Amino acid sequence: MGNTGNMFSAIPFAKSLFETLSQALTGRDEVLEVLGAFDLSNESLQEIMSLLIGDFQKGLSADESERAESPIKMLPTYVRAIPDGSEEGDFLALDLGGTNFRVLKISLEDGKVNMESEIYPLAQNLMTSDANTLFDYIAGCILLFVKKNKISEKSLPLGFTFSFPVKQLSLTSGLLIRWTKGFSVDGVENEDVVKLLHEALIRNGVSASVDVVALVNDTTGTMMSCAFENPSVSAGLILGTGTNACYMENLDNVPKWDGDRDEPRQVIINTEWGAFGDNGSWNHLRTKYDEQVDKDSLNPGMQLFEKMISGMYLGELCRIVCMDLADKKLLFKGQASDKFKTKNSFLTKFVSDVESHQRHKIDEVLKELGVEKQTSESDIEVLQRVCAAVSIRAARLAAAGIASIAKKTGNYTTTIAVDGSLFKKHPQFKRYMQETLSEILPQSNITLMLSEDGSGKGAALIAAILVDLKSLAESVKVENMFAATSFAQLVCESLTRAFTKRDEVSDVLGAFDLSREAVLEITNRLWKDFDRGLSADENERANSPVKMLPTYVRKIPDGSESGNFLAVDLGGTKFRVLSISIQNGEIKDKIEFPPLDQTIKTSDAETFFNYIAHHISLFVKKHELNDQLLPLGFTFSFPVKQSSLSSGFLIRWTKGFTASGVVNEDVVKLLQEALGRKGIGSNVEVLAIVNDTTGTMMSCAFKNPSVSAGLILGTGTNACYMEHLDNVPKWDGDRDEPRQVIINTEWGAFGDNGSLNHVRTKYDEQVDKNSLNPGMQLFEKMISGMYLGELVRIVCMDLVDKKLLFKGQVSEKFRTKDSFPAEFVSWVESGEKHQIDEVLRDMKMDNEQATGSDIEILQRVCAAVSIRAARLAAAGVATIVKKTGKYTTTIAVDGSLFKNHPQFKRYMQETLREILPQANITLMLSKDGSGRGAALIAAVAQRMYST
Predict the structure, then answer these.
(1) Among the options 225, 391, 455, 637, which is catalytic?
(2) 159: which strand partners?
(3) pLDDT in the model for residue 478
(4) 196 and 250: one domain?
(5) Max CA-CA distance within the chain?
(6) CA-derived radius of gyration, the chain
(7) Hexokinase C-terminal domain: from which residue to which, for each copy (predicted)?
(8) Which whole-number Å values give the CA distances from 476 to 87, 308, 480, 485, in the listed order?
(9) 655 or 361, which is more confident?
(10) Is residue 251 part of a domain?
(11) Is the C or the N end of the chain the one with fewer CB within 10 Å?
(12) 329 and 435 in one domain?
């Protein structure tokens, strides 16, 4: 079979790779040159923030000539405080601001909000009609809603969210300054939109059922909606068809304020920041593509900030850039379809679909645009890079706006309420914003809170407050309703109660807080265990719980492998059987996911491996592979002592596996014997045993030679990395070239010697005590998906016992061990209401038990546990980087926790920047890495054996 010691020698691959890259990089460089126009450095963002704050101040000035210098109107909303939770009754809301509008009925009772809503379309001809046509259509839709919901017998207060620049004269009147977002309806600018709506309601016979009591901008409504549940909210942000922001400003900073200055001495300011830049203040940062979008718009020269951010324009920006690349023959071989050439044919939804990196969605976009036939894999990559460049710039600009508000108010620890289709539906936008905020305001702690139907609900809440205050104090004028002493006192009392509760919750969650110093100390301790684990001294190795196992893999594939190969990936709640076909450096795979229940995981060796062999046999027959010799790579994600590439002895079970008769046995031999018993031992040969981390690393390294480590964040956690043989004293193999070997750290056992006791909590101790292997895999139990959900549940139960959550009452299911899976942590952290509702339903918690405040606390618990896990994982990665000295590198990552948790990657990246600011570490998601990597190693082994 030949010597496998140097089988990963890659000189031919390096030469082939160099030639391929040389050809590809020319085109890539030209694409980069085009997309470089969208790159905004941190210095540019700081400049934008300075200009924006300057325009904020001018817009608030009492000097009319100074206000005229600012394109940002900074409009007082006459809203001066937030709801206090005592509002009750039924209210209506009208939300107008995009291609659709909504009518909502909102019922408030016992601090809860129930909503019924209808969405009505707004055709383009209505958006460019006249005042009577538009408002009569809206009134007609309100009439339909009133009849459907049987409201006609009583008059309900209505809050009107009107998402355009308005000069408000009071809470019930406002003059439209100008249309935006593609609207150009005649006879509305400089008119009172509340009056126009009221007149239309009379004309359509609805006025007896509806009383318009408040005019609200969508940003203010969004802010009020979230503030109803979270008193730390200080600003509202819209990222949808258009963009805008509002925030709470001290009256001392509003010289132009002409109302009273009694308590509360504050008012929400509607910035109307979409017009930022209309005075040319940052033209040097706009591109030729921005200029073309502006030129072709309905309002050239206006709303320039909005045209670089909002959903109405992002798709068209991407299309124009793609057309430029096609003209340069850098995309679609220079041929775009007629549909692609059509203005506004590339919807912002398409940007989100492309950025999702889900192939079926991308294929649907290409088909919709008529370019599916001429699109290569390289074209898809270019299209993804265009969408990313445009989206990242938009998110960085939006983040610069939020940072400007934080700097102006000095409120660096705060929550921003966000609504809008772009923020909700673009899969990366929130992450792009959060990463930018951590770069340009590193001292801040800003949470972006998704508002659920915020603009509509917020308007109704303001209407509710108005009605409530009317009943409290008949003498209070509508314009000054928020100055009422009774209301201010209620708000103060409400906040006092809320903050006392929040402080107690913070005390509990503070146990999970890992400071920068604590994380750095963990890296130091882990590094020492790495060195001990690699030592030639058996006594020194015994002092390290981290085994540092050589894998006998010393090089990456060279690209010449071809044929069909099998892999089995075993290591979690399921196992995978897959085949890969390698042709001309491309890989195609087929995958099956047989179940792996607890009875199999806790059976005996023969039962266990017979089950695996049975499903391999089914796979081979199903895919008609039984007439050929099939080399198999075996990803076995447990601590194994290897003596060669094709033999490995199980050191101990982890992750809940306890099958008897396997520990201290050669698992390759056990699998090969089981294959023989199933009658396929002659054509399926296990050539390589691989840990999942090594497989993940090899899979990504096949495409990216800068990969230097592999990381698993799933049911369990582990890492491997390429180590120089001079740093592996215990290595007993040859020391010929290449003088390196991949080390499987088995870092899940870090801390089993007590080195993590100083950062473990009473909740960690309880999880460990109740586990199948107490006192073992302690690092893993603080990070991996198998334990995160249970950690969250135990913390929640402590808060319930303290009567800080769910009013001290939870379901029997919630009290049951392991009933809260890691998947629920991801769903709660997504911030998506339907996913959180699904979690509560599954946990048998009905709406009466879970208030908005409870949901916020549940989110904070999930975040605290997840952030600590991510910081610990980042500490591990940083240890590898520091030990190898490779500060610019790529880490291949696989595992359900990393893939499915919406914030985990961001938490890790922020921690890495914090503790290793000099490093440039890319976390690269592996596609089916652990299985594919094993098959790749089997492919290389088979090639070497045949030579």
Answers:
(1) 637
(2) 93, 214
(3) 34
(4) yes
(5) 97
(6) 31
(7) 235-465, 709-940
(8) 17, 43, 7, 10
(9) 361
(10) yes
(11) C
(12) yes
Is there a contact between 892 and 929 (Cβ–Cβ < 8 Å)?
yes
Residue 98 belongs to some domain of the structure: yes
Alpha-carbon distances, residue 60 vs 255, 272, 757 (angstroms): 6, 12, 54
Cross-strand pairs, 121: 100
Rounded Cα gap, residues 320 and 685, in angstroms: 53
Question: Cβ-count burial of 124 within 10 angstroms (0-12 exposed, 13-18 middle, 19+ buried)?
Answer: exposed
Strand order across the beta sheet in which 586-592 lies: 586-592, 575-583, 563-570, 630-636, 684-690
Q: Check whether residue 250 and residue 322 sit in a common domain.
A: no
Please tell me which residue, 807 or 777, carries the higher pLDDT value: 777
Q: Give the CATH number, domain containing residue 138.
A: 3.30.420.40
Please give the Cα distance from 16 to 116 (Å, whole number): 62
Residues 430 and 380 in one domain: yes
User: Is position 739 annotated as part of the catalytic site?
Assistant: no
At residue 609, what are phi and psi to the nearest 5 degrees? -75, -30
CA dihedral sign, ordered 750, 752, 754, 757: positive
Strand, helix or coil at 445? strand
| 108 token code pair | 């408030």
What is the dihedral sign for C-alpha 229, 230, 235, 238?
A: negative
Q: What is the dihedral of CA 321, 326, 329, 335, to 10 degrees?
A: 170
Domain that includes residue 258, residue range: 75-231+246-276+455-464
**CA 680 to chain CA mean position, Å:** 44
Residue 276: closest CA among 75, 73, 74, 72: 72
For tokens 């490779």, name the residue: 886
The reply to whether 211 belongs to the active site is: no
Tokens of 818: 């392991």
pTM of the predicted protein model: 0.52
Token match 């920068």: residue?
516
How confident is the model at residue 943, as a pLDDT? Answer: 64
Domain assignment present for 837: no
**pLDDT tens digits, one per residue of 539-594:** 999 999 999 999 888 877 666 677 889 999 887 666 889 998 888 777 888 888 89
Q: Does 80 lie in the same domain as 50?
A: no
Average pLDDT over residues 829-856: 81
C-alpha span between 203 and 143 (Å, rounded): 11
Q: Do 261 and 212 belong together in one domain?
A: yes
Tell which of 435, 464, 493 closes a domain.
464
Whether residue 337 is found in the same domain as residue 408:
yes
Residue 296: which residues within 8 A CB-CB, separation 6 or more?
316, 343
Residue 330 lies in a domain: yes
Q: Are residues 294 and 443 in the same domain?
A: yes
- Of the pLDDT bands very low, low, confident and very high (cuts 50, 70, 90), residue 502 is low
Q: In terms of C-beta density within 10 A (0-12 exposed, 13-18 middle, 19 or more buried), how is residue 455 classed? A: buried
Q: Which residues of 310-321 are buried (b: 16+ CB within 10 A; e: fewer)?
A: bbbbbbbbbbbb
Which residue among the candidates 80, 431, 576, 652 is catalytic per the annotation?
576
Q: State the total domains in the chain.
A: 2
d(CA 740, CA 233): 53
Q: Could you confirm whether 376 is annotated as catalytic?
A: no
Q: In the sheet that 920-925 helps form, which strands lie side by side, from edge to edge? A: 549-550, 740-744, 717-724, 707-713, 888-894, 920-925
Tokens linked to 101? 């509008």
Count the alpha carbons within 13 Å of 149 in the hemisphere toward its beta carbon.
24
Cα–Cα dist 554/735, whole Å? 11
First to last CA, the chain: 7
pLDDT above 80: residue 486:
no
Burial (CB < 10 A; 0-12, 13-18, 19+), residue 118, is: middle
Query: Where is pLDDT greater, at 179 or 779?
Result: 779
Q: Give residue 51's pLDDT.
A: 96
Residues 580, 589 contacting (CB under 8 angstroms): yes
Interval 777-795: pLDDT, tens:
999 999 999 999 999 999 9
Give residue 566's pLDDT.
92
